[in-house]
Amino acid sequence: MGALTSAELPVIDFALLSGDQQQQQQSREKLSQAAREVGFFYLINHGIDRALSDEVQQVARQFFALPQADKSAVRMANSPHFRGYNLAGVEITRSQPDFREQFDIGAEREALPFTADAPTWQRMQGPNQWPEALPELQTVVTRWQQQMTAVALELLRAFAEALHLPRNAFDNLYGDYPNEHIKLIRYPGRSEGESRQGVGAHKDSGFLTMLLQDDQPGLQVEVTPDNWIDALPKPGAFVVNIGELLELATNGYLRATVHRVVSPPQSRERLSIAFFLGAQLDAVVPIYPLPPQLAGLAQGPASDPLNPLLREVGWNYLKGRLRSHPEVAERFYPEHTSH
Fold it and tell me: How many other C-beta atoms lie within 10 A of the C-beta of residue 127?
């Protein structure tokens, strides 16, 4: 696969971002360099209770161990808000099925009234589906989501400062109703000769992604075209990567990095839990004025003609969801599907 090793993924100490002035300065410079050069890093000393993260992993395993009927009762195809359970092979990345069983959760809100003149992306806001057979899932995941949001927002503000922007520069995009998103993901083992696409190569669409891994490898980061490195599990650390919103906001100075997951071998399975910090659906991403020494390195966002980046946040999110979840698209968004 790639010649590099996971040791070359930078490590950011979250505690030092709020240390003394010299520590803050050094840590921000390291953060900016990590995001600019790799787009991925380990986050340590983040303050998330290890016992809570263990509890989230435990309840996720309990969910995936439920009878199929209980999981199917909350399948995503029931939800215009793209919330709920998907069997392995249902989600699509780059036109190929992803072999991961997963459960998607968003911010718990009421659905907006749907009117003919409302933008279609408003339909993404709404309540989650929760399995009746496992009521503690909602309790534990909601508590973890609140703690993860606090850390991710502090990290986003550290990014703003690292870019020589006001500390709260991105707060208006995050807004009062941000598109926070959690995925519980189980990658079943695959035998030789079967597709090893746990999830295909892609970028994330939000500000930041924070990933809680178990002890199984599989996550790979593309550092240069066709040169992949393993983001091996590191006990107590999150793997963090930047998404397309920061690429757009910095005119490409920061790059959202392509990554993928290779399925474990047949006798194993892999559990990961991803937290995505997003923006408010009605936000439009401006280009933030970076200082000349940074702006001169910005090459513009790397927009794929087959998957163009949109500055209108709601449309950018919806585009990705429709492409990844054809069942939901066909049922609830027929006007956006072609036959």
Answer: 14
